Amino acid sequence: MSSQKEARRPSDGGVLRGGGGCRGGWNKAGGGSQRLGVDGLTNPVKNSTQEPQTGVLFLLVVTLWSVKKGPVMIHAMIDSGATNNFIDRDFADSLGLQYHDFKNARVVQAIDGRPLKTGPVSQWTEPTRMWIREHMEEISFFVTEVPHFPVILGIPWLTLHDPNISWTNRELQFTSRFCQNHCLVAKVCHATDAEPIITLPKKYSDFWDVFNEKEAEKLPPHRPYDCAIDLVEGAPIPRGHLYSLTEPEQEALREFIESNLCKGFIRPSQSPAASPVMFVKKKSGDLRLVVDYRALNNITKRNRYPLPLISDLLDRLRGAKVYTKLDLRGAYNLVRIREGDEWKTAFQTKFGLFESLVMNYGLSGAPATFQHFVNYIFQDYLDRFLIIYLDDFLVFSRSQSEHEQHVRMVLQRLRDHGLYAKLEKCAFDLQEVDFLGYRVSPLGLSMDPAKVSAVLEWWAPTNKKEVQRFLGFANYYRKFIPDFARWSDPITSCIRGKQPFRWTEQAEKGFHQLKQLFTTQPILQHPDPKTPFVVQADASDVAIGAVLMQPVGEHLHPCAYYSRQLTAPERNYTIWEKELLAIKAAFENWRHWLERAKFPIEVHTDHRNLEHLRTARKLNQRQQRWALFFERFDFRIHYVTPAQTKQADALQDAERPQNLDCCNLKTLPRSQWETSNPLQLSQLPLTQNPFSLKKLEPVNRQMPGLKNRFAKDYVFHSHLRTDYYATGIMFTSLQAPAEKRHFICVMTASQQDILGYLKPCT
User: Per-residue pLDDT tens for 221-254?
Assistant: First the structure.
């Protein structure tokens, strides 16, 4: 739902109902009972003085499936006075729902019996999937204009499902026989925690067999790319010990053995080898059996087939506008163990010794074997319209018409080779997609919002292992973070050498700065070899860094950031050499883009002496080696002042929120925190994360993974976690009075109100 519509909710706690005052005839109810009602839907108006119905209202979060965006969470109003289910036309258009026409238009009456200004309802939507937590159904809506809630569920929905409403817990419980037989998914799945099960689009329905779960559980045939386990000559056969298991783990082990014996994936063994088993928890809370193959892997000859570089895969997506994500079902179980090597996979349990006939997780050669297998099958598709990383497939196209053809080609190839996809983890015909930890769109690359949320929850490390975990996560996304090495240096210094762990004040500052930078990262543009490159490099006493940019209109837009800490010898370099080293390191890191570039590379530096690099008469041996390296590139060094450097980054700076603390918030001009027109949301500040503020521009782009959360959540956590004060749109009808002290209501606040609200936060 658009942020404009979200803001149209009444600020005094009232709920809107039918009438002539608002768009389409919906208006705000006055008096004590405030409700939304629709009457006379199926018949024309016969009595304009008809008494309005009364009903019960209930607001809840639902998830609708969008052919454009995948699952979309919104707030729906349940109204027992509405005689049908309604969806707002603009919202339905944003989901890409298909419409059907009624033979005879249906007149919709407002609460006072008058026809709505929008006129008769003439269309209804193609059935789409809707989830309310674990409750799932196919539902159609009447299409009209509902300005305050995108979806209204009325009497037909309530009659069909007959839910129990818990006013204490503010929950719906679906316990009717109809729901038990038709609406509940197999597993408990909260829509806010996991992607819901989806249906196969009709245009691909002839490939239903590719998504057949039962077929995927059959033992695959032997192929040329079976998993080989070649042992080092003379190495002792591994034999581990039984691990103690909890009662739930023992039950999960029994189920695993029975299920896989039935499928033919394992068989009883008399092998001299025996590896132990253990369990790890999945995100869903279920237990996954893992065989501890460490001893076997230590004596196994390595399969050196390379896994693709994720950065190279993502570079192939330049120019794509439509995406489909496929996930293989069973993945490793689709590959057989080479005949004669099965005994080496033997694992021991309290129920006996078994060996695997299919490839298991934990085998050192499994990733390389599987990547070799899928690369061979799809060799002629790779990089043209398909990229693959192990069992994750992404089909990409420049237009919708060619995308359907590409998806069908991939599905046909899967069918030809007896491979199967997991429908509940696939997503079709998307305009943006989360893939390998990144969010990909035609605009470029950004961090997965779920990862950003994880950063916000990260507590300051208390030992070396926790520091290593944080730095390992942060390093994966360092290409988004300017000056990453500078801020990570004091954190890294806490684990250098053999000194005891000590979390310093500088490390704490760097830790919080990195968290803030992660939550304000820009969208990185896909590098285009047909456009000139600009490299902006800089150096400090402890680190070097650079940003690769390309012009977009009148601005330079970042393609990637690079930084690293200086080694101990490098910290002794002269300023000139450190600045030159920053350029050299950037060229090495982005060599695949910069070497033999179509246009001369512009290098921007604030060190004037670097302009004379190629004309310098005296160079030491190190500088001479570097000069030979630079001969591989066609570039020009331009001196820019620090002010000009900031101007070059104007676009990326505009994308980052400005931090506001209580002191400067008090002195903000009125235009920064108040607007005379509530619909002019671009003028209103809104919290993007618990560490900073940003003007809304717009929410759907800046917070793609968080856009369905209320602004009050961010403001509340901003206050609790960082002592920053934040502004946000206050939905008074949905919050308790005690929470008001955490907010500035930008719709109605006065300067005195702001000063008053700030007091609890200082």
Answer: 999 989 999 999 888 988 888 888 888 888 889 9
Taking CA 314 as the corner, what is the angle to CA 471 and CA 225, rounded to the nearest 5 degrees? 95
Secondary structure class of 477 (helix, strand, coil): coil
- Token pair of 186, please? 């197999």
Domain boundaries of the chain, sorted by first residue: 3-182, 247-441, 449-519, 534-652, 657-761
Backbone angles phi, psi at 126, to 5 degrees: -60, 140
* Class of CATH domain 247-441: alpha beta
Name the pLDDT band for 191 (thresholds 50, 70, 90): very low
**pTM of whole model > 0.70?**
no
Token representation of residue 112: 């006072």
Rounded to an integer, what is the distance from CA 219 to the centroid of its chain? Answer: 34
**Domain 534-652 listed as CATH 3.30.420.10:** yes
Helix (H) or strand (E) holding 633: none
CA dist., res. 202 & res. 391, Å (int): 24
State the Cα–Cα distance between residues 124 and 378, nearest whole angstrom. Answer: 41
Radius of gyration from C-alpha coordinates of the chain: 30
CA–CA separation, 283 vs 285, rounded Å? Answer: 5
Q: Is 586 helix (H, G, I), strand (E, B) or coil?
A: helix
Band of pLDDT at residue 667, cut at 50, 70 and 90:
very low
Phi, psi of 158 (to 5 degrees): -65, -40
Beta strands in 606-721 (DSSP E): 635-639, 685-689, 692-695
Q: 247-441 with 449-519: one CATH topology?
A: yes
33: pLDDT strictly greater than 60 = no
Q: Which tokens go with 536?
A: 């902006």
Options 2.40.70.10, 3.40.50.300, 2.30.30.100, 2.60.40.10; CATH for 3-182 is 2.40.70.10
Question: What is the chain's mean pLDDT, rounded?
Answer: 71
CATH class for domain 449-519?
alpha beta
Cα distance between residue 216 and residue 219, in whole Å: 8
CA distance 266 to 522: 48
Residue 151 contacts residue 79 (beta carbons within 8 Å): no
Question: Amino acid letter at 459?
Answer: W
Q: How far is CA 2 from CA 5, 8, 362, 698, in A?
A: 5, 10, 45, 9
